[in-house]
Fold each of these.
Amino acid sequence: MFPRPAFPGEVRRAAASGRSRSRPRVVGGGGGTVLLPSMLMFGVILASSGLLLMIEKGILAEVKPPPLHPAAGELSRRGIGVGGAGGEEEEEAGGELEREVLRDIRNRTIRAVCGQRAMPRSVWELPAGQRRTVLRHLLVSDKYRFLYCYVPKVACSNWKRILKVLDGALESVDVKLKMDHKSDLVFLGDMKPDEISYRLKNYYKFVFVRNPMERLLSAYRNKFGEIKEYQQKYGVEIVRRYRKNGGNSAGDDVTFSEFLRYLLDEEAERMNEHWMPIYNLCQPCAVRYDFIGSYERLNADANYVLERVRSPSFVRFPERQSWYKPVTAETLHYYLCNTQRRLIKELLPKYILDFSLFAYPLPNITSEFCRQ
């Protein structure tokens, strides 16, 4: 169930996924010698932002987030600016400016990183396993000609509801049904190569992203605090592996530190999709996304996409479920500051492309910050 990884490293085109002490090796093949460096990300990030140097130096307090991820205002999708209220018009203009600034930063970073010779230019340049992952996360709407790369813990259930409504499988996004994440959805990976290539070239492509540490905490709280299947499949083994005398655990008492230690020992490409790095799930170098939305301004960005794909006016992004327990800044602060700093520092390189490509600041875990 939990094979211990040997950390063999990654193909040069791949997303960074191993630990920093992994050793590169050379593998001979029919096509010649292929270098498999364990941490391609080190060179990539050193060239683009120097974040890893900051991790090693512990300079996390210096990294302050620019105001690029404000909470989205509750703007009416079809009625923004209607009514003549000057405040609404200013808020709309400010939101659009913020979106354009963030989009420009992300686009520049992605161009710089993905422009490296080792990075893939299309899904067909990806190793087979990575290609399968991204193709099975790209959902298709042929009627509205778009591809959506779903990322678990980034409102993907609501987006799947929208796809089902657009396809006529659901009457409304407000239907109170347990989400079936497979039926009535079209996955790009189920299509033929020529059909895949046509849609990748001609359809509008978008993905939504989230602060990497916040997403991990959300997955931890949900899967190990509420879902028995995950407690039995993953929790029992995590406790057995990382806790002394943990053999009697039912898997429902996994600590956040134990979860992070488990992530450190897992290869990114073999991870469960709920904590696999977004880079590995959606491959933003191999797939040129037209829009990258933010969880932090979910409603505004979702409404922008719905307008862009010309969805019917009655289709709106669903309201958050009443039972949902959001990860607040205070909650994230509590968990990070009560976790060994060494664990977080060692984990950051595995998710560094998610931080850098999508313009998220590194977590501040300095003693000064945690005393607040």
Note: Residues 1-50, 52-85 have pLDDT under 50 and may be disordered.
Amino acid sequence: MGMEKGMWVFALLLCCFVYDGIVAEDPEHGHRTERISGSAGDVLEDNPVGRLKVFVYELPSKYNKKIIQKDSRCLNHMFAAEIFMHRFLLSSPVRTLNPEEADWFYTPVYTTCDLTSAGLPLPFKSPRMMRSAIQLIASKWPYWNRTEGADHFFVVPHDFGACFHYQEEKAIERGILPLLQRATLVQTFGQRNHVCLKEDSITIPPYAPPQKMHAHLVPPDTLRSIFVYFRGLFYDVDNDPEGGYYARGARASVWENFKDNPLFDISTVHPTTYYEDMQRAIFCLCPLGWAPWSPRLVEAVVFGCIPVIIADDIVLPFADAIPWEDIGVFVAEVDVPNLDAILTSIPPDVILRKQRLLANPSMKQAMLFPQPAKPGDAFHQILNGLARKLPHDKSLYLEPGQKVLNWTAGPVGDLKPW
């Protein structure tokens, strides 16, 4: 108990020190900031306009707009990037109405909008829906058949991307939908050496509502008096009744080791002051759940709370533009029992620098999908990623009549009409 008390005193002193060190200089945010150095900063501030042209397929509304009319909750959940990317592209200066001059082709399919009563997406119809859309564009336009999708991109924000399942074991068993094997996938899921992540994919942040977050901003001189903060599940009793599978046991380990530690403000209760609390915290835990990613990563960056990333082999959003090693803390899942010692051992000057980088407005902007879009936001980072893949290699273009993809591959249920 004496040791815990000593650590708590240390944490309070650190809070005060960090608070005292970050106040003022950027007139807009009231915090001293630091520009991202090297190529990452240049990439983050790239302007994709003029570097690529995108043709947006016009699909029947049953693939997109009618789905939202049926359930508008899709507009606010963490998978909504597929909806807002479509809306952004319709009025973006990179859009071309002439497919002959397009560098990329985009198919607007909302595959995460079949929701349960609890608001969670059911992925079971998604493969059939995606196959149906691809069959349509392949039969109506000639562009898919030229490359079998190699110059097409799809936004697939499911837990495990185009594997279309929320449980990892079953997602791995399914694999990426065969018809998407040559396409570029824009997805929230990212984990190294995983069957659900292709090498050429673009990993993006999950959707977090920008207006709602902005409405909960606290004064910039607010003291960060919470050392470690987390709100969320530690166990998923409904889907993992025996425990140990959910979050690979990492969340359970956080609770079992630190539920009584005064350094840790952790609970399953999600208060109305959640956003404000994050702005009063120095460290915000971002552990894996069923998938490695969650909106906490976005919230932590936007609110200047140092993200503590607990997800082995995670591939983070826009990793070529955002210096995650500089702004976050990475803790191996096996080291969770030592979390308190790891965080209290970080020197104050290192914490200060992470906070200065997090205070950089361009860092926050890159994690958000605002409406209307703003320069440097997540929409533009996606376009930057697509622009950097150009020009397409000539080997991607097929000979007339040549086929590479197997249109009858995959589970039998996926082959049923949608």
Note: Residues 16-29 have pLDDT under 50 and may be disordered.
Amino acid sequence: MMKAEGIVGIEQFASPGKGRGLRVSRAYGVGELLFSCPAYSYVLSVNERGLICEQCFTRKKGLAKCGKCKKAFYCNVNCQKKNWPMHKLECHAMCTFGENWCPSETVRLVARIIARLRDQKERSPSEKLLLLKDMEAHTEELDNEKREMTEAHIAGLHHFYSKHLDFPDHQDLLTLFSQVHCNGFTVEDEELSNLGLAIFPDIALMNHSCCPNVIITYRGVNAEVRAVQEISPGQEIYISYIDLLYPTEDRIERLRDAYYFSCDCKECTSKSMDMVKMKVRKLSDEISQKDTRDMVRYARNVMEDFRRAKREKSPAELLEMCELSIDKMSTVFDDSNIYILHMMYQAMGICLFMENYDGAVRYGEKVIKPYTVLYPAYSLNIASMYLKMGRLYIALDRKSTGISALQKALAIMEVVHGKDHTYVMELKQEILGE
């Protein structure tokens, strides 16, 4: 009953030194779709409620809300009915708990996975190559901090979902949370806003490279895999698990921490971009290596502090944090140094949130040019940046500058999302409308 049906043009194989992997059995050109995978389970982020349908993730105005909890929104009755087995896990609880209903997105996703596993009779279309239960978990490699976090998740699961679910035993829950931690995907829109969390077993088979030859984008609750480089028959396909802006040492640390492996791709072995990414100012008196090392340490700490501060500080305080750190780093680093870019990107986000569009444009203009050099050619980070900038320019009555930015976004999006994607069609309309 659970035999794998496979995916045309794609095969699973043992990748030397990497465990399981996927490779192609034919050639693929840039922008070509290799395969698509429906989410096995998924959950819409609480922040997106009312803007996007809980069932199909369609973004549109005038969604209808659930009559009971008034918190979930749908395209129509059809979407609502289809979503009920999952929404049922939360609808009553949200009414009962009221303001105190606050499970994490991870807990919400795991509850849905447990419900789906319970009712699943046969292999799902998300598991053409790999069953959910066979996904990598790395449970034995959890450090204390991660174990504590998982225990907190398990407590949250019991607290908010015990009425509608029977839970597997503790060890199985640990495994399931670890699997979601290593294999969960954040579903993002064209501006890279977080729409929700999902699990795609077949996608989880792909290994990582810092020079990926495919990219994942989303069409509703389907993940699509497209070529961003020419791929020859027999070649392994690689996605990137992480943001590729950062230098090798940071990437390796991030991959080891989150995914428990060391990357040996050509960028990690050659470190060819590190000099450009870590650029220092051209000052008459040479900046010593110690100054640079100290400033890198400061930059990494400030990034971490900022991540924490986002939860408790006001936008004004956060913006000040960005400004102070940028000033300090500028004494040693060039403006295109990725640590400065990181804080400028954060500052831009805060300005957008505060509706300070002039400030947002000012930061965006400093970020966009280096981005086009530091990221791979077909990058969502570059596309989403051009998109935000284009929309900002237009809002500030700088129409022609805006349109030219939107056109640059479109050129990348046609490759990574496909020419027939809603985002691409909507953007074309947006450009024509201006």
Note: The chain has a mean pLDDT of 96.
Amino acid sequence: MSGRTAPRRVSHSQRRGPTSGRERRQEQWRGRRDEAGMKNVEERLGHRDQESVPRGTCQSMCPIWELQEREAQNRLHRFEMLAGTERDRRPRADSLRAVKEYTRPAAGKDSTRPSDLRPPAVLLKTVCYLVDEIVVSPSLQPWTDVYDFVFDRLRSVKQDMIIQRVSGPDCEVILERIVRFLIYSSVRLCGEPLRLYDPRINDTHLQECLSWLLNCYAAGSGPHPNQEDFQALGLLYNLGSPCAMQHTIKLPKRLRTSPSVSLALSINQAFLERNPVRLIRLARKLNFLQSCALHQHLGVCRKDLLLIYSHGHSSRNCHFPLDRLAGLLSLDGSLTVQLCQAHGVEVNHKNQVVFSKTSFMEPEPRKLHCVLYHQIISEKQRNLSVGDIIHGYA
């Protein structure tokens, strides 16, 4: 007898799988703000009057003492080094390119000194620099290094915002760019090795920033010109989450019935009804960033579609046209064949799909590379620059 384990069969009554990921997203949606260490800073500040909250006075992207310290300790990132000194034993810092790095709060360390904190205008300038000079630069490669650098510096930006209790439009305009960057990165780095990109860490920070941003919208009197877009992004990213759904339903009618939010609600309804055909059809109406927010759910939807059709068309005499199935999945023919084969669905030499409820199976771990199935997303990025996407111009 062979020692190989037979592939696990999937019945139509089985659900999508473990809900731990969804439960984790629901917990994050409930309002987890920022890193655990920063909560201690907030608690200390909470005992003070609003007038005693520190106000930053640092007018550069990186405090001068930190710049000098990191230069002396050889801790400069290569994106911060003065041109021509990169190969020196001790590279010099470029004060116009250096950005304050994130540091965890430590006992006995005062992280509230005004001279170390950047005011909101400088924080926005820092975020714009990171997007315009680092993220979009074609000469800075690989992009995983770009992501690591920008991700760390954005954490430092959030840290300064929390300590100073930045709120209102100043807070919103920064958080909006951070959320767009993290959503875009989740697609661009999809499939990268875990040592280079951890999607769970990206997801955690994205959920925190998104929750913070939506709270800003709820607390402020407005106007909030981008609120409709981010309410829709929040629901698409947390598709199927009861908390996200409840939050959206409670929005004012003006927002709830807006085109973006209405489309997101329709897609969420299709997801809850397990109607993958309708969901994928509606997903074609999304713009690029909205498609990026939805992309983590498309694999589940496509698997559900094949599972449902494997039961509904389970007959040796029933042959389903491959090109029609490809249209339903929003994939080209070759990728549709790969997806079918990975799930045990037969495609014959006449390009006909032969569904069978007994042959459908879960694909082997890591056999399916999500990045190969980004066609529905990549088609929408044509003529869109990364900078325009993150700044919200697209």
Note: The beta strands are 319-321, 346-347, 352-354.
